[in-house]
Amino acid sequence: MYPTTGWEQFHRLLLSPFFLSAAFSWLMAQLTKSIVEVVQVRPQSLRRLLGTLVWRTGGMPSSHSAMTTALATSIGFGYNLASPMFVLSLFYGMVVIRDAVGVRQATGVQARKLNELGEQLRRQVGVDYEPVKEVHGHTAAEVSVGMLLGFFIGVAFTTL
Description:
- The protein has helices at about 5-15, 15-40, 45-55, 65-80, 85-125, 140-160.
- By secondary structure, it is mainly alpha-helical.
- The longest helix is centred in the middle third of the chain and has 42 residues, at about 85-125.
């Protein structure tokens, strides 16, 4: 029934519709985000564009929402909506999406205020201050588009 070696199990994982739907939805969200950046910002370097493709958080669409929605959708279609795996993936997705919207946004606001304070200290007192990264949470539209993308990719990988 199940593969016996680690390589066989790894190969089976890579061909799993659950893995593929989550990975493909993340990749498509990041690719879309990169295209949006090229159109809107016209990045000055290939390094920045590759950073967006691979790692950048925030922006349209939410890769967090796409990936977790695709995972939950594919598990729901692959097993059923009453399965413990679907319930787990559903609540996992809700936590991840909530974090992408609220917690990271609050962190970004705090970082922005710290940077403003650091800049004031630099000007008034001469303190060396290196700004902290301002993380931006997702908007409702970015999350919604990510969820739609993930839903349709999850359906595609488990029903086609």
